[in-house]
Design brief:
- The complex is a heterodimer of chains A (187) and B (176).
- Chain A has nine helices and no strands.
- The N and C termini of chain A lie far apart (43 Å).
- Chain A has 187 residues and is mainly alpha-helical.
- By secondary structure, chain B is mainly α.
- In chain B, 62% of the residues lie in helices and 0% in strands.
- Chain B is built from eight helices and no strands.
- Classes of the chains: A mainly alpha (187), B mainly alpha (176).
- At the A-B interface, helix 2, helix 3, helix 4, helix 5 and helix 6 of A face helix 2, helix 3, helix 4, helix 5 and helix 6 of B.
């Protein structure tokens, strides 16, 4: 493999490639790019209950489940075959701050000191992984889309609701990352 | 968009009058806009698109909890560059598709969804933002994280499914 593939990709390569997902999905099958709906289709397929929101023909949306299945496989391919030095290069300010919380392992893309199975039995792990995951699922559906559906697809189609949603995604993230993460990690 | 050929008219009627479509499109970004009935294995082309997307997400470190914290602390341009350049390419692509009336590979006209503003865009948007900062992952990266071997992200995924289910359960009681 060429050296440039194995190294982390710069934003000006990755960003435009992600943007191309929009026309590719439209042209290969008239599909609007979006990921979070897959979570809804999983609910509709597995436990619809008596909830009208999950009563629809999810089989017509199978394409979306193939898409997310592909993302999982792609993640695996990238991690197994296309990566040499996984140590992530971060802003020294962030490294300094995180080290004061005891996070020192930068060999993986996620902090293994917090994101691991035993951590689920700690308050900090529960808040970050379980509460965080719940808010991702609840919030994206309530907002009608995620970073893909609103911030990429919606903005590409110049939709004002998508712009407002994107601003709120960022605002929510700014608040929690700056104000709450320092408290939560010290739990 | 005014349909000009018979086929386009038929397609447009399908999209506007099909009740099932109406229900599914209420809030969704992802819904099947094609009325073509293809065998299930046609979906493998979306799996291939997903594989490429997953590789990009990992190689650009978009799935990294560290990069997300860096973004929200304004300590790096990387994530803003990724999202910003993706949007620019997306806008140009959509403009080209509309301008030149580009069809799908099956010859269908490409349909775009217009979105109606509702309170959910704001409240749900903020809640998702909270979750994004906590987990360091939006829905796409959760799947990619699992793929990279960070198996605890399976719990993030299950929690997100529970969150989506809870939204569906409470939907009628929430402000929209």
């Amino acid at each position: 493999m060429p050296e440039w593939i194995m190294k982390p990709w710069p934003w000006y390569i990755a960003g435009p490639l992600i943007g191309l997902m929009v026309p590719v999905l439209l042209i290969i099958g008239n599909k609007s790019f979006g990921i979070s709906s897959s979570l809804r289709h999983i609910c509709a397929a597995c436990f619809p209950g008596r909830i009208s929101f999950f009563k629809y023909d999810w089989k017509k949306e199978t394409w979306n489940l193939f898409l997310v299945g592909g993302i999982l496989i792609g993640g695996s391919i990238a991690a197994q075959l296309l990566t040499t030095s996984p140590s992530i290069q971060l802003n020294p300010k962030l490294v300094k701050e995180l080290s004061s919380y005891g996070i020192t392992d930068y060999t993986q893309l996620i902090p293994t000191e917090i994101f691991n199975w035993p951590s689920l039995f700690s308050l900090k792990g529960l808040v970050l992984i379980v509460t965080g995951g719940f808010l991702v699922g609840f919030g994206t559906r309530y907002a009608g889309g995620c970073t893909s559906g609103h911030s990429i697809m919606g903005l590409s189609n110049l939709q004002l609701p998508s712009l407002i949603a994107t601003v709120c995604f960022m605002a929510g993230g700014f608040i929690v990352s700056n104000l709450l993460i320092p408290i939560i990690i010290n739990l | 968009m005014t349909p000009n050929t018979v086929e386009e008219k038929k397609h447009h009627e399908f999209l506007t009058q099909n009740a099932d479509f109406e229900v599914r499109s209420l809030d969704a970004v992802c819904f099947n806009e094609s009325e073509l009935n293809h065998p299930w294995w046609y979906n493998f082309k979306y799996a291939i698109a997903g594989i490429l997307f997953g590789i990009i997400l990992v190689k650009a470190e978009v799935i990294s909890w560290f990069r997300i914290q860096e973004m929200f602390r304004l300590q790096s341009f990387h994530m803003f560059g990724v999202i910003g350049s993706a949007v620019i390419v997306g806008i140009i692509s959509v403009w080209i598709i509309k301008r030149f009336n580009i069809k799908t590979i099956y010859g269908e006209p490409i349909e775009f969804v217009t979105r109606k503003l509702n309170k959910g865009n704001i409240i749900g948007g903020l809640l998702f933002g909270f979750g994004w900062a906590l987990t360091g992952a939006c829905p796409g990266p959760i799947f990619a994280q699992i793929g990279t071997g960070a198996t605890v992200a399976i719990v993030t995924l299950l929690s997100a499914i529970a969150g989506t289910w809870t939204y569906g359960r409470l939907r009628d009681k929430l402000p929209h």
